[in-house]
Amino acid sequence: MRVLALDTATEACSVAILTERGVCGAFEEVGRGHAERILMMVDAALEQAGLALGMLDGIAASVGPGAFTGVRISVSVAQGLAFGAGLPVVAVSTLETLACQAMRGGADQVLACLDARMGEVYWGCYRAAADGHPVACTAPAVGAATTIELPFTGAVHGIGRGFAAYPALAALRGIRLSPGADRALPDARDMVRLGAKRLEAGEGMDPAQLTPLYVRDKVALTESERVAAKGGPR
Question: pLDDT confidence of 217, banded at 50, 70, 90?
Answer without folding.
Answer: low
